[in-house]
């Protein structure tokens, strides 16, 4: 069981596409949190 999990983890770590999507997902989450904290309005001089 642990061998399968470690193999899958290694596959995920070595897969650049998964890493790319994970990065995009995290950045979108951060953007949503920041936008929500500022009320979602874009009047902040951007």
Q: Helices, strands, pairings?
A:
Blueprint: H1 2-14, H2 16-37
Q: Mind explaining what this structure looks like?
A:
- With 46 residues, this protein is mostly helical.
- The chain has one domain.
- It is 76% helix and 0% strand.
- The protein contains 2 helices and no strands.
- The chain has helices spanning 2-14, 16-37.
- The longest helix has 22 residues, at 16-37.
- The chain is elongated, with a radius of gyration of 17 Å.
- The model has no long low-confidence stretch (mean pLDDT 79).
Quick overview of this protein structure:
This protein is an all-alpha fold and 46 residues long.
Rg, Cα atoms, Å: 17 Å
What is the domain total for the residues? Answer: 1
Number of strands: 0
Structural class: mainly alpha
- In whole angstroms, the N-to-C terminal distance is 51 Å
What kind of sheet is the major sheet? none
* SSE succession: HH
Helix content: over 70%
Poorly predicted ranges: none
Helix count, DSSP H or I runs of 4 or more residues: 2
| Strand coverage percent | under 5%
What is the mean predicted local confidence, pLDDT? 79
What is the 3D shape?
elongated
């Amino acid at each position: 069981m642990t061998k399968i999990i470690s193999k899958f983890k290694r596959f995920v770590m070595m897969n650049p596409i998964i890493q790319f999507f994970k990065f995009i997902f995290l950045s979108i989450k951060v953007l949503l949190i920041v936008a929500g904290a500022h009320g979602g309005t874009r009047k902040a001089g951007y």
